[in-house]
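Structure request: F-box domain-containing protein, Aegilops tauschii subsp. strangulata.
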Amino acid sequence: MEANQSPPRKRPRRDRNREKASFLNSAEAMKLDIWSEFPEDLFETVIARLPVAAIFRFRSVCRKWCSLVGSDNFSQQYSEVPQGMPWFYTITHENGNNNVAMYDPSLNKWHHPSVPLAPANIVMPVASAGGLVCLLDLSHRNFYICNPLTQSLKEIPPRSVQAWSRVSVGMVLNGRSSNEGYKVMWLRNDGNHEVYDSVQNMWSQPGEFPPSIKLPLALNFRSQPVAVGSTLYFMCSEPEGVLSYDVSTGIWIHFIIPLPLHLTDHTLAEFQGKIMLVGLLCKNAATCVCIWELQKMTLLWKEVDRMPNIWCLEFYGKHMRMTCLGNSGLLMLSLKAKRMNRLVMYNLVSKEWQKVPDCMLPCSRKKQWIACGTAFGPCPSASP
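Returned structure:
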């Protein structure tokens, strides 16, 4: 630097901040111009491909965006997008109180709705289809349909058979989504059954139970029915097998299928149209969770996977009980013994086992005991 040349002067901070503010203002104005001209149908296309949690954050931005998610066009867009992992809708117990907890496996996170979905007498989620969950009260008479995400609820008309008895409940869609309607079916051990059609908003008794199938059925009420298309599959205990009913055609079929030896707490599951079986295999003091697939040609159960041995060592010598909380593609298993309560998830696609974090209320460190639950496909646009 030459001796008579002064160093460059630094501009005052005020001038620099003024220039920065003018640049940001012009950028904001440019963004407003761009977004004001953005086509609304593209908004719906983009939103429909967001994760479910992001969609609900989107709804909270403004009233217009909230109404956009509830529009018929968005429902159509969302139904055309391949859906991700199912969520789990569960009922938890603490000090005699029933609470709702939903588990999102994609985020490995529990959600606790702040507003009850229904009166306190609703304690059992029994079936699901198209983003909707069917709830049944303790009297086994009153049914409700809800969307757990939007907390919308509908009480369906009381069934005509009012006698108290335990029932097995299944649910199927009329078309590709719940917007085309759905059907709910209940079945008793004595063969009595009814089907509710949401389009007609009424129960019906579609014909007599076939005399070729022996009564009583000895239904396995621990196993929720599974749906493949319009057909529901119920698990029977005596004789061992599976009972199917096509809701569209009214055709019953009883498959006599012997169970694997030393099997307890078993339940049906469904994966890509195939009927699966999950249960505890107990022999001597050893216990293991196993997965079977039904072979259509031989009508026999073929083992396809089992829990890793290092996990099963924890169950050795204990009297274990298992409840399956979801039975479609992704299984959540509640494993209980004295002073032990484990939640495990099994992915039928990747054949991976994963431990589920404990369910605890936001303001409590006490672990919640999960009483019952079902899997459902999260769908913000599904309406009861």
